[in-house]
């Protein structure tokens, strides 16, 4: 018998978006990004891993379906974990030679721009790190699976530093504050569609990096200032400032997607309706009470403080009386959880 390690990992939703790579193989971003890690009770990935001498091949099942282990991203994650384990001498040579089986599932619409790859790879890498008893920071290994995954390794608010080293050693995630810092902060996810996105993040970023002039401007002039400002707003629990930067950054990311050639369109009429609704709600409230942000898909993530939650849920029910978007409300998470430690 051999130990099975099971880990659950949270999704994270960026408030300063990562969009564009300086190195596609190592998944090194053009700019820093900032996100909140959401509570695992509503949306999470769950992964079990096991290495045994009698396994014939590395194998992976995603949501119950066997998938190929040949993807370079998977291979890079497993390879890097084994290299670290060898360097740290954390397991025997015999254990390193064994094949590994991975079983992963998540409980939310995949490929609909809901950060499923972030939770999935953070979970996989954390589980493998436990299996191979790797002690060093694993955010840079999760990054090799999917860039945004490196932020799901930590709870609370997290910054992914773009770094400048060509080998990516300084492109790691660090925690800004933990989940207890701003307990009133909540996220309301509005699922307006769960169809697979037309252009994957990876392809969308590639086109933007090659063709968008606006992306160059964003990386050089907008993101550095916004990143410092939003971190200060988070530390000071300044919701209106936090919300304004979050919305502006989401809008600019989608403007970059449209500035790409050919353009990438991720938001739908319903997404734009929600944007309009939130601005009207904030105006009627006399101050900024809710922020929206959209990843590479039509679904909205609203950030809001706890007091505002019942009012905003009523509003959503009121304006979408027949075709309500499915909604999930959640607080922030303290990070991944190991369900069966070795
Ligand atoms: C819009 O991390 O999915 O959600 O690194 O190519 O796997 P790859 O991309 P991915 O991109 C996420 C982009 C985003 C913004 C963000 O999460 O920062």
From TrEMBL:
Biological processes, Gene Ontology terms: cholesterol biosynthetic process; isopentenyl diphosphate biosynthetic process, mevalonate pathway
GO cellular component assignments: cytosol
Catalytic activity: (R)-5-diphosphomevalonate + ATP = isopentenyl diphosphate + ADP + phosphate + CO2
Pfam families per the UniProt record, alphabetical: MDD_C, MVD-like_N
UniProt name for this protein: Diphosphomevalonate decarboxylase
Functional note: Catalyzes the ATP dependent decarboxylation of (R)-5-diphosphomevalonate to form isopentenyl diphosphate (IPP). Functions in the mevalonate (MVA) pathway leading to isopentenyl diphosphate (IPP), a key precursor for the biosynthesis of isoprenoids and sterol synthesis.
Listed GO MF terms: ATP binding; diphosphomevalonate decarboxylase activity
EC annotation from Swiss-Prot or TrEMBL: 4.1.1.33
NCBIfam families: mevDPdecarb
Domain (Mvd1 C-terminal): residue spans on this chain: 187-342
UniProt similarity note: Belongs to the diphosphomevalonate decarboxylase family.
KW Cytoplasm (keyword) present: no
Cross-referenced InterPro entries: GHMP_kinase_C_sf, Mev_decarb, Mev_diP_decarb, MVD-like_N, Mvd1_C, Ribosomal_Su5_D2-typ_SF, Ribsml_uS5_D2-typ_fold_subgr
Pathway assigned in UniProt: Steroid biosynthesis; cholesterol biosynthesis
Keywords: ATP-binding, Cholesterol biosynthesis, Cholesterol metabolism, Lipid biosynthesis, Lipid metabolism, Lyase, Nucleotide-binding, Steroid biosynthesis, Steroid metabolism, Sterol biosynthesis, Sterol metabolism
Top-rank EC class of the record's enzyme: lyase
Diphosphomevalonate decarboxylase-like N-terminal domain location: 9-173
Highest taxon of the lineage: Eukaryota
């Amino acid at each position: 018998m051999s130990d099975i390690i099971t880990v659950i990992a949270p999704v994270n939703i960026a408030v300063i978006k990562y969009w564009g790579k300086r190195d596609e193989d190592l998944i090194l971003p053009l700019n820093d990004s900032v996100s909140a890690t959401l509570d695992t009770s509503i949306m999470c990935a769950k992964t079990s891993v096991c290495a045994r001498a009698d396994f014939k091949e590395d194998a992976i099942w995603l949501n119950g379906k066997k998938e190929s282990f040949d993807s370079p991203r998977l291979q890079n994650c497993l390879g890097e974990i084994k290299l670290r384990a060898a360097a740290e001498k954390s397991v025997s040579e015999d254990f390193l030679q064994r094949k590994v089986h991975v079983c992963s599932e998540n409980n939310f619409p995949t490929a609909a721009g809901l950060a499923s790859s972030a939770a999935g790879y953070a979970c996989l890498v954390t589980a493998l790190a436990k299996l191979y008893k790797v002690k060093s920071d694993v955010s840079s290994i999760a990054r090799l699976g999917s860039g945004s995954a490196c932020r799901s390794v930590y709870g609370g608010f997290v910054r992914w530093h773009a770094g400048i080293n060509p080998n990516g050693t300084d492109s790691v995630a660090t925690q800004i504050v933990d989940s207890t810092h701003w307990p009133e902060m909540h996220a309301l996810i509005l699922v307006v569609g769960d169809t697979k996105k037309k252009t994957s993040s990876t392809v969308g970023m590639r086109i933007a990096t090659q063709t968008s002039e606006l992306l160059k401007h964003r990386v050089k002039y907008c993101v550095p200032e916004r990143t410092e400002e939003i971190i200060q707003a988070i530390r000071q629990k300044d919701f209106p400032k936090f919300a304004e930067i979050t919305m502006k950054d989401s809008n600019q990311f989608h403007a970059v997607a449209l500035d790409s050639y050919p353009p990438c369109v991720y938001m739908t009429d319903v997404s734009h309706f929600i944007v309009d609704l939130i601005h009207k709600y904030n105006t009627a409230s006399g101050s900024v009470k809710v922020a929206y942000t959209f990843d590479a898909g039509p679904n909205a993530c609203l950030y809001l403080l706890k007091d505002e939650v019942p009012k905003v849920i009523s509003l959503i029910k009121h304006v979408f009386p027949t075709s309500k978007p499915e909604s999930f409300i959640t607080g922030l998470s303290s990070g991944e959880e190991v369900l069966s430690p070795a």
